[in-house]
Amino acid sequence: MSSKITIIGAGSVGATIAYTLSTQDIASEIVLIDINKQKVEGEVLDIAQGTCFRDPIAITAGEYADAKDSDIVIITSGIARKPGQTRIELTQTNVDILKSITPEIVAAAPNALYVIVSNPVDIMTYVFTKISGLPENQIVGSGTLLDTARLRCGLSEHFKVAQKNIHAYVFGEHGDTSFVPWTGAYISGVSVDEYYKLLRSMGRDVEELDKPGMLEYVQKSGGRIIANKGATFYAISAAVCKLCSILSSSSDSMATVSSMMHGEYGIEDVCLSTLTLVGPEGIRGKVPMRMNKGEIEQLQASANALKAVIAQIDL
User: Fold this and answer.
1) Cα separation, 54 vs 242, whole angstroms
2) Whose CA is closest to 140, among 174, 100, 99?
3) Of the candidates 60, 61, 93, which has an alpha carbon nearest to the alpha carbon of residue 77?
4) Is Oxidoreductase a UniProt keyword of this protein (predicted)?
5) Would you state the torsion angle of the CA atoms of residues 117, 118, 119, 120, taken in this order, to the nearest 10 degrees?
6) Dist. CA 254–CA 6, nearest whole Å
7) Does 135 sit behind a cis peptide bond, omega within 30 degrees of 0 on the bond before it?
8) Are strands 166-167 and 186-187 parallel, antiparallel or unpaired?
9) What b-and-e string marks burial along 251-264, b requiring 16 or more CB atoms within 10 Å of the CB?
10) Cβ atoms of residues 105 and 8 within 8 Å
């Protein structure tokens, strides 16, 4: 069933999400909202003129009131990360922007599922959860969905195996304290370590996986892309559109999205990413994945780093 999807923010990320959605069958109606009216009207015209090659879809430049009856609202508003800048340095500015947006969009679309994409996404998801007044199940941060995609891309290239066969995840903050719980990393039911041995037994010339190097690849990819082209938007758009597909589906899926923690792994009152059951009702609950003691401590350290930032911002 196609959905009405409203996107707040027509910058590189928001506009690319709108374009990507326009090429798929997830949405029957897309509303794009931005403070820069000229920019948003240009983006909508450009996207709409390419839709003659697909089944009819409505794409409009709107105001907050036009978000009425949205099934999904995607929030991408905020100042983009600059070369050399960390996500956390963006925090207060983007929190203030979110605080100004939230009352208006929630009043227009109180029943929508909200996808928070603005960085730092875990902080923004936390702030939106605290100030929106909405049930927590309606709020989904994009979290480490992109990090997990980057991990699977890297593992696919290393092992020369299709990404769809890889079940490995990035947990924690979408940022510097993220980590890979390798205990739960599998390639079609076989652990990553076992898969390496299996390939060697088949005579395949494959190097042993450099796990710290793979995590560095995941964590540094965004900065690398920004240094080379100024912004990242294709992969995050693909990840968000996949999340919209999950939220519009008839059944639930597993995803590493950011949401409020309530004692899972000994973590309270912070949003970060763990394996989560997500579907047409939004967040259904956390799925406890097998992790060793060290990995749980890494997750707790990530939570503490985020809490330290939250303590410094003006909510």
Assistant:
1) 19
2) 174
3) 93
4) yes
5) -80
6) 24
7) no
8) antiparallel
9) ebeebbbbbbbeee
10) yes
C-alpha 11: how far from chain center: 16
117-130 confidence digits (pLDDT tens):
999 999 999 999 99
Locate the domains of the chain by residue range.
3-141, 145-310
At residue 1, does pLDDT exceed 60?
A: no
| Whole-prediction pTM | 0.94
Give the integer Cα–Cα distance in Å for 105 and 132. Answer: 9
pLDDT beyond 90 at 89: no
Count of Cβ atoms closer than 10 Å to residue 188 Cβ: 11
* Residue-wise pLDDT tens digits, 18-58: 999 999 999 999 999 999 999 999 999 999 999 988 888 99
Residue 194: the pLDDT is: 95
CB of 174 closer than 8 Å to CB of 144: yes
Strand partners, 260: 271
Residue type, 43: E
Query: Which residues are catalytically annotated?
Result: 174
What is 3-141's CATH number?
A: 3.40.50.720
| Predicted confidence band of residue 88 (pLDDT cuts 50, 70, 90) | low
| pLDDT tier at 103, thresholds 50, 70, 90 | very high
Determine contact, residues 112/45, Cβ cutoff 8 Å: no
By the 8 A CB rule, do 175 and 87 touch? Answer: yes
* DSSP H or E segment with residue 305: helix 293-310
3-state SS class at 69: coil
Q: By the 8 A CB rule, do 141 and 130 touch?
A: no
Return the amino acid letter for 208. E
Contacts of 253 (CB under 8 A, 6+ apart): 246, 277, 278, 279
Q: How far is Cα 262 from Cα 13, in angstroms, rounded to an integer?
A: 30
Confidence band for 85, pLDDT divided at 50, 70 and 90: low
**145-310, CATH topology level:** L-2-Hydroxyisocaproate Dehydrogenase; Chain A, domain 2 (3.90.110)
